[in-house]
Structure formats: C-alpha cells, structure tokens
Amino acid sequence: MKPLFNSFLKGDGGYKRAAGILIHISSLPGDHGIGDIGLPAKRFIDFLAEAGQRYWQFLPLGPTSSAFHHSPYMALSAFAGNPLLIGLDPLVEAGLLSKKDLEGAPEFSPYFVEFSKVKRFKQRALKKAFQAFLSGGGQDQLDSFAATNHWACHYAHFMAIREYLGQAGLLSWPEELRLRDEKALERMTLELASEIRFHLFTQWAFDEQWKALRRHARKKGISLVGDIPIYVGLDSADVWTNPEGFHLERSTLRPIWIAGVPPDYFSPKGQLWGNPVYRWKKGSGANEGLYTWWRERLLRTASLVDVVRIDHFRGFQAFWRVRGGARDARDGQWTRGPGISFFRRLKDAFEKIGILAEDLGTITPDVERLLKRLGFPGMKVLQFAFDSGPANPYLPQNYASPNCVVYTGTHDNDTCVGWYLDPKVGKEAKAAFRRHANSAGDAPHLDFIRLAYSSVAALAVIPMQDVLGFGSDCRMNTPSVAQGNWVWRCAHQYLSDETASFLREWARFHNRSRE
Fold first, then answer.
1. pLDDT digits over 89-101, tens only?
2. Exposed, middle or buried, 201 (CB in 10 Å: 0-12/13-18/19+)?
C-alpha cells in the first residue's frame, strides 16, 4: 500500500544520504549573551555549508518563561517566536538601534546562557527599537502584520495582560480575564495599547529576521529542521484563546487530564509534563475547532522551516494521560488518539512541509503501523542501542529502511562522552558499544559518529556537543530535572575551520557530503 505522504528524505532517484547538526539557536556563539537569528545564525549556516552538511536541526522557537526555566517545550505560544532570539545587530543595520545603544552591556558568559541577565538587556534594547520603529512610521507595518497574523494579536494581548498581572500564570488571572469576558478584554486593550503594540513589534521583528535567515539558508543549500511539541503549555496564548481544544474545567481552566509518559529509560516514575491533553472529540464528532488550530499551526511552521520534527509523535495514536494534580506519571492510562484520520483531514497542510516523527519511548505495533502507513521517517538514537542484545532496533544493522534519521543522541540525552563515562551505564552496554564500534573506546564520540555516518539511515544528525567531544557538563537537558537545563552555549572558537574540515571529510567518506 502506498504511503499517504512522501518522505522528505526521498528524491526522484531514491533516498539521498546526507548529514546534519543539532544545536539550538540559543546555544550559538554571539555578543549578546545568547545565540540569535541575526549574525550568529547566519554564520553558523556558513559553517554548515563549509562542513559539507545539508541540515540544521534546532529546538522549538517559541517564547520561553522563567516559570519553566526557559524550556522551549513549555512555550507561551505555539506560533510566536522567542524575542530573546531576535538579533540586535540587524536592528542596528535597520536604523532602529545605534551602536551606542548596545554599549554598556553586561559581561556575558560564552559557555552558558544567563537568561535573567540576557532578558533584562534585550528587553531594554527591544523597547528602544520599538520606539524608533513607531517614530519612523512603523504603525502601518504593524497593522498590516497583525491583519495577516491573527495569532500575533492573541499572543500580544496574552503577554501584555500577563505582564500587567506581574507575570502571573493563566490559572491565577482574574476570572473575567481568564475566561475572556468581552468587556474586560476591551478595557485591557485600551489600557495596555502600547504594551500590546510592543509585543506585536517583537513578532514582526522576529519574522523579518527569520525571512532573511531562511533566504540565507536556501542560498547556502541548508535545510532548516524545526521542532514542534505535540502539546502546548497550560500557561499559553493557545490555551487562553482555544480552551475548547483541551480537557479543562470550564470555570477555572484547570486541566482535568495532563500529559506525560509512563516509566521509561529516562525516569523510573515516568515523566509528568503538566501540559493539558487535547479534547479530540466534541460530542459524538471531531472537535473542528481543534483541527482548525492544528492546520494553522502546521502552516505557520511551514512558513518558518523546511522540515519539522513532531515531538512525541506516538501521542497521535495513543497518549498517556494522568489526572490533574497527580504527583508523578505512574498512575496514568493509555488513551486512544485521533489516529490516521487526523492526517487525512489535514493532508493539505502536512504536504507543505517535511515531517520527521519522534517515535521514541514505548512504541507499540499500532504506532509502527501508523508510521508506515503515513510514510514519515522515524528516529534512531545510538545511545539506546547497546543494552538489550543483537535484536535491539537502534543498532544500525537492524534498520529496515533508509527512511529514518539516526542520531548519536538528542537534546534529552547525555553527550556521548558523558554516556561512556557515566558509572550508571552498565559495563555490558559499554562493552557492546566497543565491540560494535570495533574500538577501544578512547574517543567514544568519534566512534558514535562513525556508526551513525556509516549506517543505512538516509540522514545522520549529530549534536554539536558530540562533534566536539564534550562531556556531561555540556548536556542540554536532563528529563524530569527542572533546573540547570537549556543553558549550554558553544563558544566561538569551537566553530573552527578545523572542525568544519573534519565534518566535511567524514561526510564525504561516508557519502553524505553536499558536494
């Protein structure tokens, strides 16, 4: 049976071997405390082109919050861009800031993001740029942007009210605002008019800079791979404006059911994410408002990237839900998702973007059948390959088709060096790794890269930390651990000509080079 969709890995002549790098934009080197979509991102695209790579994969782009330790998977909007990722240099070039405006910046670490310090500095700079934008007659551009991007209006109102209430989460808002009373919203729109325009401006600036970045990527032959979490944060513009799409109490908006996963490789108690789960059905039929929201989300994503990884893809077949207020995820239940009907209904939107399915975790035969029927490539993570014998599905010799993407690890894994040095990783797994790599384990990150590059998988993606052989102190995220994540940065000196040459030679040797 022919798959419903064509794999983005497959061209006219079959599957085309390629290589890519995984690093979030915030982790790039730059002058303002955090990587951004201005010069740092363009320079990294130049590096990728020199390194013979074809793909750049990064984490979700949405605005983050200190309430969730700036996790990109708990964004305040599924549509908006993170203002902290806006480049200040392009604003200087556009005449909205002067170089003097950037003087006196605090000293930032080149090795990790100091989010609170970065936010204070960037907020001041963006507000100066906003005033210059309005003084230069930019209101018409804002009006035009708002008219064609209604999500930006929802986001701007949500953020302005949230700040007015002292950064309060949605559940603690006054009832009239939480439940979107028409008169209360009209009053806030008048009272917070300037603040609403400012948040609209940040989204206009993000979009303008992203368009320039995507043009640069296309010019250099680099495909951008985004990431959308299957769920959205409870404290988000999406829940506020579309509460009927989620299992929530009507008057409080408290979640009746929350998302997570049962005990697994990462956590013996499972993972309790806290996101509200979708209300796929409304009465006896499908929730049409939810499907409309998903279509708009996919089309928005397609306007930003070439390919998108859908995180926790298995949730479309069945998802783990836990009662709101639970302490951990063990006492949950599997619940049937919308299945293939979801993809048939939204076929027009899915055809506008390449899809990569994150199919890790508890994968049952029905999930495998769904993925095969759709034709989307799934993921293979080498760090999972060495702990259960020769039939382990993550071992390269067991990949049934090139229609997959192999990783040494993901943002949720330790680095390969960290994995190999971790005393909690069994001796048997490390011995199996050395045997498969035909190596003494002196440079485990290189062994992992070689296994990925030499596999049948059409695309091999390597986290930048593994390219550089960094240890556990450079890990991006530890699941089920709230603090200390998302802060790693790659200092400028590591994106060297020598590193590019190494990657280019290895990609060429394994028939993955863009040349």
1. 999 999 999 999 9
2. buried
